[in-house]
Sequence to fold (170 residues):
Amino acid sequence: MAPSVRLRRTGLIAVALSSLVLLSACTPPGGAAEDFPGRPVPEEATAVDVGAGPDEAGVPGSEGEEAEEAVDPMEPNDEPLVVWWADGGQLALTISGSSSCPVVGSDIRVLEPAGEGNRVAISLVERPADEICTMDFVPHTTLFWTPYDVTTTEPLFVEVMGTEVEVPIK
Fold:
């Protein structure tokens, strides 16, 4: 075999292997796509008036029922929040904690595919036990690509931090 033919074949094999590596890097592996401080806020989000009285907020008043306390969805709270993001192409997980040691999602895995439960589990990044963190309480969001085996057309159940969060139909 001539040296130029051998060189050309070697070059083609190298190009094919490089393409395979690059294409496999484009496939969402189940790890986090992005994370950032704060909550994801869509542009069309409406402000919530937490100071509204029972009549203005539509909360029961003097009918013998206790008025529900209005909750600002932008304030940090103890429960993880999971919502569809990017038209269902991603899931946004928001957990409040220390700003210097945020609670960050590490990966997502399908427990039950669509039609059989539509259930996923999200693991968190483990932090060192001796890590020194600030004593503030702020939200932090991790985005995950939506796994191929789940659907936005039925409720999604997300297991995270020992709790189950139901994400409604998109």
Summary: Strands lie at 32-37, 81-85, 90-97, 105-112, 119-124, 138-145, 156-160, 163-167. The chain has two domains: 1-28, 31-40+47-167. The first helix runs from residue 3 to 26. Residues 19-27, 43-54, 56-71 have pLDDT under 50 and may be disordered.
